TrEMBL record:
GO terms for cellular component: membrane. The gene is Abcc8. This is ABCC8 protein. It comes from Erpornis zantholeuca. GO terms for molecular function: ATP binding; ATPase-coupled transmembrane transporter activity; sulfonylurea receptor activity. Belongs to the ABC transporter superfamily. ABCC family. Conjugate transporter (TC 3.A.1.208) subfamily. One of its GO terms (biological process) is potassium ion transport. It comes from the Eukaryota. PANTHER family: ATP-BINDING CASSETTE SUB-FAMILY C, ATP-BINDING CASSETTE SUB-FAMILY C MEMBER 8. The chain crosses the membrane at residues 26-45, 57-76, 82-99, 120-141, 291-319.
Length: 342
């Protein structure tokens, strides 16, 4: 219980208070996991064309992948229990990972490895990602004022988390739970066992109630009136007030939809590459660059492997559906709030 603040605040729900940079940390971790998967695949492909086995090409990346997953689980439990002081372990890990990857990157530069080799690019990306995760960790220390500060910052839980009647916890769960709707499992299990009623559904969070959204829209409408010397000019001012009050979530929904549509091109491209490589009958690459006793392959040689394209196709389709569902969710939620406000 070292440094626990759980005794200072009373949260009825088994959920968590987000630390500073919560969403950015999850996004960076997802990107880190993907880059590590690419590094593992690149090491395996490079090792496959060598005459002898080189475990160092993919084993460290595999260990780093397990460490990244462990860091996510560790962070989730610390955030759920509100134990910010225990994040000091992650601070040390990101620091060591950043230093070691930087040393590896400098070693590549000294031996003439450049952007034409995929391993060089992946190592550079990992240096940037570890550096950004280290910066996020330092920001948590700075904002929450723990470890190196005498007086940690007191955090008051949101009013919704203190209300047993609120069971719609989507705003307070982590990014992975939002993307997979994992937070709804308890509600779905309850609905499966017995018919649900209004008491089971519970109250809406404050941010989603009609009165809250009415106040937001009314303030935006009054701001439009104050900008003009005369009274508002019909529907134009109403549209402007609606865009001002609810424009950001609609823009977010549109961004998710655009990303989903762009990822839709990955499917045909990957399938075309797989068919092309399988049709050639010989899927073995012949890399020309050999440095430090091992082969270095380029991005083009890496993407000429049908197995690599199959894995990329799987990730692209998974991400496409995730963005598409997120777009639908944000648009429908914003529409309900907008209708309640009007």
């Amino acid at each position: 219980g070292w440094g626990s603040q759980s005794s200072k605040v009373h949260i009825h729900h088994s959920t968590w208070l987000h630390f500073p940079g919560h969403n950015l940390r999850w996004i960076l971790t997802f990107i880190l996991l993907f880059v590590l998967v690419c590094e593992i695949a690149e090491g395996i492909v490079s090792d496959g064309v060598s005459e002898s086995r080189h475990l160092h090409l993919y084993m460290p990346a595999g260990m780093a992948f397990l460490a990244a997953i462990t860091s996510v689980v560790y962070y989730h439990n610390i955030e759920t229990s509100n134990f910010p002081k225990l994040l000091i372990a992650l601070l040390f890990y990101w620091t060591l990972a950043f230093i070691t990857k930087t040393i590896k990157f400098v070693k590549f530069c000294d031996n003439g490895v450049g952007f034409s080799q995929l391993r060089f690019c992946l190592t550079g990306l990992l240096v940037v990602l570890y550096g950004m995760l280290l910066a996020v960790e330092i920001n948590v220390i700075r904002v929450r004022r723990y470890v190196f500060f005498k007086t940690p910052k007191e955090v008051k839980p949101p009013e919704d988390l203190q209300d047993l009647g609120v069971r719609f916890l989507q705003p307070f769960v982590n990014l992975l739970s939002k993307g997979t709707y994992w937070w709804m499992n308890t509600f779905i299990k309850t609905a499966h066992k017995k018919p649900i009623d209004l008491k089971t559904i519970g109250k809406l969070p404050i941010a989603m109630r009609a009165l809250t959204n009415y106040i937001r829209l009314n303030e935006a409408f009054e701001a439009q009136k104050n900008k003009r010397s005369s009274s508002p000019q019909g529907s134009r001012s109403i549209w402007r007030a609606l865009c001002c009050a609810f424009g950001r979530p609609l823009l977010l929904s549109s961004t998710f939809r655009i990303l989903a549509d762009l990822l839709g091109f990955a499917g045909p491209l990957c399938i075309s590459g797989i068919v092309h490589n399988v049709g050639k009958g010989n899927n073995t690459i012949r890399p020309q660059t050999k440095i430090l006793g091992v082969f270095f392959i380029s991005s083009q040689e890496f993407l000429s492997n049908a197995y690599v394209l199959a894995v990329l196709l799987f990730f692209a389709l998974l991400l496409q559906r995730t963005f598409l569902q997120a777009s639908y969710y944000v648009a429908i939620e914003t529409g309900i709030n907008l209708r309640g406000a009007i």
